[in-house]
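Working notes for the structural subgroup meeting. M.R. asked for a predicted model of this chain before we commit to crystallization trials. I am recording the input and output together here so anyone reviewing the notebook later can reproduce the run.

Input as submitted:
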Amino acid sequence: MKCDTIIANFCKKVSIMKKILLTIIFLFGYITNVYASSKPTLLIYCGITMVTPIKQIAKIIEKKHNCTIKISQGGSKDIYDSLKYSKKGDMYIPGSSSYRKKYAKDGYLIDHQYIGYNKASIFVTKGNPKAIKDLNSLVSEEVVTILCNPKSGSIGKNGKNVLEKFGGKEFFEDAFDMASEIGTDSRNINKALIEKRVDMAINWRATAFFPENKPFISIVEIDDKYAPKKDIEINLLSFSKHKKIAKSFMDFAASSQGKNIMKKYGFR
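Returned structure, recorded in token form:
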């Protein structure tokens, strides 16, 4: 009888210990999940042209702050419309500082940092087989062209300004009418050149130096009086939930180390 009691007590203790162990395992799993879910996640709205160097900078900041950085990419106007609608995210990087001026009235773009500049250039298929020299080739019947929609990507808006400075509003309209394709952003334009669907385009100069584009594209410079330099700025969003990390990202991008990364991809 005494033996039975000892065995019963032992089994009872084992059952209690088992419950305690299961509770510890459950709590450990719960704490782990909470920790994982509390890891800061930042969202950057980035114009397609800048995505490659911004991804490289993001990896450095992720490691430094133990955070995750996601990038939403697209045309500068399109991604602004997205952040304006969702009111979520931390930074906005359009293809030109003109977007900051345009949208300042909305109050979503607060602090900003300058990280380099870009400018529009004539893009041609590698080696320039059509011997294109200047913007006049955009209205030549012997040259197949693509231009960007001025209401979409930043290069579309800037390209319109370049063409109007070069030959007036009529020249822009003629060039636009003669384009065989209308692109939505810089990547779309480069793809048309790489696939040899077109001979000529206007695009952001830096993208010609990206590894995926360099073997297929050559550039013809446009005089600064028609295609002035365009500053690139990172804008902190007013509704950012991680302003401290976002500012650290901005400060690094604006530092000599950050600017060297931008320079590596053609942003001077």
